[in-house]
Automatic annotation (TrEMBL):
Source organism superkingdom: Bacteria
Pfam families: DUF87
The UniProt record lists the keyword ATP-binding: yes
InterPro entries linked: ATPase_Atu1862_pred, HerA-like, HerA_central, P-loop_NTPase
Recorded GO MF terms: ATP binding
Keyword Nucleotide-binding included in the entry's annotation: yes
UniProt keyword list: ATP-binding, Nucleotide-binding
Taxonomic source organism: Novosphingobium olei
UniProt-recorded name of the protein: ATP-binding protein
Amino acid sequence: MSASIVIGAERTGSPVRIDIEELLATRLLVQGNSGSGKSHLLRRLLEQSASVVQQVVIDPEGDFASLSEAFGHVVVDGSAYDQAEIAKLAARIRKHRASVVLTLDGLELEAQMRCAAVFLNTLFDAPRDEWYPALVVVDEAQMFAPAAAGDVTDEVRRLSLGAMTNLMCRGRKRGLAGVIATQRLAKLAKNVAAEASNFLMGRTFLDIDMARAADLLGMERRQAEQIRDLERGHFLGLGPAIARRPVGVRIGDVETRARNVVQGLMPLPNAAGAEMESILLSEPLAMEPPPRAPEPEAAPVDSEQLLGQIESTLPVSEQVEPPVEPSLFMQEETAAQVAEILAEMAREPDCTFQPAAQLYQDFTVRCRMQRLANTGIDLAAFRRRFAMAVAGIPDDADPAWQLLLKIARNVPDDLLAPFLLLAVAASEGAPCPDDERLAEAYGTRSPGRIRRLLEHLEKSGLIVVRTDYGGRRSVGIPELGAVSAPVAA
């Protein structure tokens, strides 16, 4: 596997490469004014190296969450966890070498700095046997390593600056390679910027930033003017991982896009003048209600107690009178109706991409439409029954499937549907499900997740994957003693 990726091309068309192995040892600094193409450059770097090295992205604007769909990155919403939970997540990320995007767009600046500091410090403090190589990309790095005090407290600034300094100064021995991007070098702490040995400098206009960029690139001050004339998406690169002399590079195309980018102009509304005025003033503007006296705040509810309340709450639409105990005939009829409802739901397109709670609500509505007041299936049981339906197993009471379901008893709910698909194919000697079918059952469109799924199931001893010289894959279930027919992977 090559450790060199193509980041773009020179004006002559010659490719410009970045040596990822060298980058891990020498770090990278990206600079450019807003609109110069920094995020595009980082996205290109991440996409091209996704299959080469673990990636951890500190994303203050939520721009890189779309990497999860194409490359299997785990998106961690920083606003959804407290400090202890962020530290635990970072420790697991380091241990399991997961590529993640930590999105911080739901937090205020001070909270962003605290969250990023805890996250980076936990990565840095990992045990020695977990010092795996990883690219740590920090966008808008001037926010987390400011050159001067700003609108945040000194304590938060020191915490965040210390984490960034550790990343850039001491992270190399721990396998952490900092890739930092900033709009202005003058706003970035010098001791953080100085540790990078590779540079990609984009368009900038202020004299102080052009002078610093020229110094870093080893250019004379009078040559700094060309930095002002760079086009969008064009950068000057220098460093042991890029080139020994400054080289102009136009960044290549990317596969993913930021979700919150406005693409170009939009046509203006047809209404104007008096017509627009009538639209805006068609209803009287409501008067501001007088301020009410603040109500006394209730004591905060313990998180465990709150979770218990949420789990025990039953929607009004599902609160029905307990039915009379049915006869054996009625129980069999109910089981058949439930199996038919589950099979019907499993046949619907994209059903596996919906949350389990939403599917369960749909299931209960369908049961009430069939006058099935009490099916005895709660949310946990529904997850497994629905996975069985997706795999084509109609009923858990069928003796033909008892051994298979016994084997699957310890398989996690989110992995059950693809495992049962493989097991059913093996037990029937049918062709092994291909990646597309497994991805549909798993509820993903990422081929990488399917590869990791098969590796996990095989390491757990649940399956044995065999690929012949023709590239055809077959899967065996050791406890069943059965193997599926081979099919092209």
